[in-house]
Backbone:
């Protein structure tokens, strides 16, 4: 039996989600911009989905713009703010542990003449609110700090950073892709101007996401074309994707508390199992308190990341070395590097992330397999 422990990379689509999407790949194929009946049917589906997602997120439907996913949402927020505010200033604040969709966008802005401050984190992966405050300058136009880190699960002090940004009149974006479904979100009450979301991390389809844009926030579009999404994101809408996104989020919303408790339990079974098998010869990376329950980043000093992942794969256990973008290369994770952990810890870290479909039995089996691999490799 294969065990999938890579839900932070992507998740399986729930059957209910697929079922909700199917009609939009068959009978309901109209272009939502068309005024005839076929088009109106597609438009109605988009409207209903947007309403439902807005209700889940605690914002108004008009504040949500659909995109092709987390990457596009991050890019739109960063380039959109940079362009719209370039007369006000060209300085941006972010952190060293952002997803590459943020980091590489910021690096591109640097090549375009902007200045970017990449804030460090503490060894638990937390950005200090004081560091953010000290980095703010008169020409700072945007602060972009992620909500939940995708490699270690650390939850940042988003409210405090957002309030700080408000006090200084600086736009605040958060990559909330890994927060969605895991952290209760009421956008209208959060001091956040822009927030990125993606459906495929919450058992929705790939290729659909959203950017929340708070009222009165003006950002330039990334794409030019038709009038879709209030001209902010042209292109014929991904109706099936939007419907699937809404369904996936609705399911999370209906049972968020139980889902989180279940994830916490799965995580605990893993941790307890590893403790009983390997005593204290492993290290958990990330913050013990400010963390999401769906990610466990753990190191087995002496057992290199790549050989652990390869051996686990042979045993049918799918895990990761942090971001999917860096796996396959031997590059050390930029997140663990920023946390300044000992070399033996960063060189042996793996990310186990869980969700829909995982069971306690699978966790117990995974522990056995990990422990066997650790013993085999350490003895050599
Ligand atoms: C997955 C992920 C993204 C990218 O989202 P896509 O929809 O895959 O483009 C961005 N940020 C974080 C934190 C992620 O985990």
Residues:
């Amino acid at each position: 039996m294969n065990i999938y422990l890579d839900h932070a990379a992507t998740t399986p689509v729930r059957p209910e989600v697929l079922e909700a999407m199917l009609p939009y790949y068959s009978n309901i194929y109209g272009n939502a911009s068309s005024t005839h009946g076929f088009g109106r049917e597609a438009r109605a589906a988009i409207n209903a989905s947007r309403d439902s997602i807005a209700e889940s997120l605690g914002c108004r439907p008009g504040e949500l713009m659909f995109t092709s996913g987390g990457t596009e949402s991050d890019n739109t927020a960063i380039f959109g703010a940079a362009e719209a505010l370039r007369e006000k200033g060209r300085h941006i604040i972010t952190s060293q542990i952002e997803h590459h969709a943020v980091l590489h966008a910021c690096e591109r802005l640097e090549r375009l003449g902007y200045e970017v401050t990449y804030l460090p984190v503490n060894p638990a992966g937390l950005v200090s609110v004081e560091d953010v405050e000290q980095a703010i300058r008169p020409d700072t136009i945007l602060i972009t700090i992620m909500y939940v880190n995708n490699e270690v699960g650390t939850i940042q002090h988003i409210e405090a950073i957002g309030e700080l940004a408000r006090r200084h009149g600086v736009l605040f974006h958060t990559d909330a892709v890994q927060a969605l479904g895991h952290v209760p979100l009421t956008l209208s009450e959060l001091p956040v101007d822009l927030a990125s979301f993606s459906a495929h991390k919450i058992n929705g389809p790939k290729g659909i996401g959203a950017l929340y844009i708070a009222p009165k926030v003006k950002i330039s579009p990334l794409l030019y074309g038709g009038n879709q999404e209030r001209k902010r994101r042209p292109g014929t809408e991904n109706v099936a994707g939007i419907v699937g996104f809404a369904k996936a989020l609705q399911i999370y919303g209906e049972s968020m508390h139980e889902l989180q408790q279940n994830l916490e339990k799965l995580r605990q079974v893993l941790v307890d199992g590893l403790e009983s098998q390997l005593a204290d010869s492993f290290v958990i990376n990330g913050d013990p308190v400010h963390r999401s329950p769906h990610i466990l980043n753990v190191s087995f000093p002496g057992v290199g990341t790549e050989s652990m992942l390869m051996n686990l794969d042979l045993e049918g256990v799918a895990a990761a070395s942090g971001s999917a973008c860096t796996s396959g290369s031997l590059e050390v994770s930029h997140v663990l590097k920023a946390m300044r952990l000992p070399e033996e810890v960063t060189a042996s870290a793996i990310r186990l992330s869980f969700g829909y479909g995982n069971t306690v039995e699978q966790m117990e089996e995974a522990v056995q397999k990990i422990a066997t691999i650790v013993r085999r490799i350490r003895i050599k």
User: Anything to note?
Assistant: Residues 272 and 367 are 9 Å apart (CA to CA). Residues 15-254 form a domain with the Aspartate Aminotransferase; domain 2 fold (CATH 3.40.640.10). The chain has two domains: 3-11+256-379, 15-254. The longest strand covers residues 91-95.
